[in-house]
Amino acid sequence: EPEVTQTPSHQVTQMGQEVILRCVPISNHLYFYWYRQILGQKVEFLVSFYNNEISEKSEIFDDQFSVERPDGSNFTLKIRSTKLEDSAMYFCASRLGVNGANVLTFGAGSRLTVL
Amino acid sequence: KNQVEQSPQSLIILEGKNCTLQCNYTVSPFSNLRWYKQDTGRGPVSLTIMTFSENTKSNGRYTATLDADTKQSSLHITASQLSDSASYICVVSEGGGSYIPTFGRGTSLIVHP
C-alpha cells in the first residue's frame, strides 16, 4: 500500500538553528499538508500546498516557516530559527484530490526536539 | 469558530468488551467526517469517512455513525483487542472549497488484558 514517508524520524536541535523536515508524498497525490502535534495536544494544521504554491496556512505558520517542493517527489518544511515551543511531532500528509478522494494519508511523523 | 469535541477524554476497558466514543462538532458547512486511529508516536490512520448522506459505515470491528442534524458522530468498537489501544481522533472537514479539517483532541483508549 502506498505510504507517505518522512525523514528524519527524530531530530534534536539547538534553539535558533534551522531545521528541514522532509516528506515524500504518495506519488500521484496532488495536495500536500504539514501538521504538527505538541505532546499531549491535538493535531494542528500548518499549511496546505497545491500546484506548487501554498493554498492555505494557519496562524501558526508564520515567517519562520516555509515549504518547498524542490523536485517531483519531495515536500519539505523549513523552520528558519527554531524556538523551544517548536518542539513537536510534525506530520506530512497528502491526498489525491479528485472528487470524493478526500482521505488524508499521513506519514509516521518527524519528532523535533528543540533544546 | 469550527470546533470538534470528543468524549470521553480517556477510556479503559477490558479485552473483549465493546466501547463507544463520541464526537460533537460545529463545523459548517459540512463536507465529511473521518475517524482516525493514532498509535503513540505515529501518524493518524484513517478508519472511516462519512459524507452528509451517510449515517453509518463499518470497517471490520469499527462502526461509525453520523447524525448530521444533531452534528454528532460515534465510533463503536466491538470485541476490543489489545492492539486497539490508541488515540481515536474525530476530524471534520468544511465544504465550500476550503479543505481545512478540524481535529478533535482525541479519545485515548486503553485495552487491558
Explain how this protein is built:
Chain A is mainly β and 115 residues long. Helix content of chain A is 0%, strand content 49%. Chain A contains no helices and 11 strands. In chain A, strands 2, 4, 5, 6, 9, 10 and 11 form a 7-stranded mixed sheet that branches. Chain A has a 4-stranded antiparallel sheet with strand order 1-3-8-7, with no helix packed on it. Chain A is globular and about 40 Å long. Chain B is an all-beta fold and 113 residues long. Chain B has no helices and 11 strands. In chain B, strands 2, 4, 5, 9, 10 and 11 form a 6-stranded mixed sheet that branches. In chain B, strand 6 and strand 7 form a beta hairpin. In chain B, 35% of the residues are buried. Chains A and B meet through strand 5, strand 9 and strand 10 of A and strand 4 and strand 5 of B.
Helical residue percent band of chain B: under 10%
> Which class of secondary structure composition applies to the elements of chain B?
mainly beta
Biggest sheet of chain A: strands, sense, closure? 7 strands, mixed
Strand content of chain B: over 45%
Radius of gyration of chain A: 13 Å
Distance between the termini of chain B: 41 Å
Give the CA-based shape of chain A.
globular
Tally the helices of chain B.
Answer: 0
Overall shape of chain B: it is globular
Distance between the termini of chain A: 36 Å
Number of strands of chain B: 11
The oligomeric state of the chains shown is: heterodimer
Strand content of chain A: over 45%
